[in-house]
Amino acid sequence: MSEDILQQLGLEPSASLREKTDKSIEKLIDKSSVKKDPIVEVKEATFAYGRNVILESVEMQIHDSEFWCFIGPNGEGKTTLIKALLGALRPKRGIVQLRADFARRTRIGFVPQKCDLNPSVPTTIQSFVIQGTAGLNVEESKLKRRVQKSLEVMGIQQIRDRSIWRVSGGQRQRAMVARALVRDPLLMIVDEPTAGLDLAASAGLLKTITKLNRKHRITVIFVTHDLQLAGRYASHLAVFKNRQVKCGPVGETLTDENLEMAFGVPTEVRQAPSGGYTVQANVEQPEVLA
Question: 223: which strand partners?
């Protein structure tokens, strides 16, 4: 994560960031050519519940600052792979390997589709965000600064004392992202956050998540059924269908063939003039008899 987001969240830069390096040596190094190990690597992994195989031979590498969209019909394994990344499910075969700097998964933030609280329990926005600090080995003063800065980054500091059940759906989703953000994530997994939101709330939330990815370099996995959204925002794509996952850069994976295979509808993918891709379904209209 960049140094400015560390400061926004009230964190101290790591020792490696504080150390000054020899400028004459830095000039000789083309940093753009140095590529870190993937933060997540899935190798020949098969996932199952008992004898029910959900995904087979999954191969995937996720690197720093990428914006992944997971797409595919319901029941095709998106949630299964997310569980594996979160450490809740082990592969039946193969491995899911995390980079050493967050192998304990404390630097993975997860934003579920729906608020996972008991509505009968009184909970303010701030106390809800504080729940995201559970299990973190960080001083209390720093945790408090993280909570306050996360509220500010998500634009909900003014409503921090309101009940989470007495705010709009968009504000509640922002609180869920803030709860994930307090973990100082290298990777944020976001499960259909715009489902059920109106257009303005959806657009505002997407803008904020995109900013976290592009400005603050947080890697994002975004689960969605919206192909236009995937075409516009994703740098990488994973298409789930028939126990298989086809994944890679969006320009190589968001194809007519892959989308028709996944959704059973002929589509046409075009590169948009403003960047990204648009997807159009080629559905024949029934003939109207006079």
Answer: 70, 191
User: How many beta carbons lie within 10 A of that of residue 50, not counting itself?
Assistant: 6
- Domain ranges for the chain: 38-64+73-106+224-290, 120-184
* DSSP, residue by residue, 104-171: TSTTEEEE-SS--S-TTS--BHHHHHHGGGTT----HHHHHHHHHHHHHHTT-GGGTTSBGGGS-HHH
pLDDT tens-place string over residues 123-176: 999 999 999 998 888 888 999 999 999 999 999 999 999 999 999 999 999 999
pTM of the model: 0.83
Low-confidence ranges of the chain (pLDDT < 50): 2, 5-6, 9-15, 17-18, 20-33, 290
Cα gap 56→282, rounded to integer Å: 30
Three-class secondary structure of residue 64 per DSSP: coil
For every residue of 184-227, DSSP letters joined together read --SEEEEESTTTT--HHHHHHHHHHHHHHHHTT--EEEEE-S-H
DSSP labels for 226-270? Answer: -HHHHHHH-SEEEEEETTEEEEEEHHHHS-HHHHHHHHSS-EEEE
Hey, which CATH number is domain 38-64+73-106+224-290, 3.20.20.150, 3.90.940.10, 3.30.565.10, 3.40.50.300?
3.40.50.300
Q: Which residues contact 163 (CB under 8 A, 6 or more apart)?
A: 122, 123, 124, 125
Q: Which residue from 147, 173, 145 is spatially nearest to 160, judged by alpha carbons?
A: 147
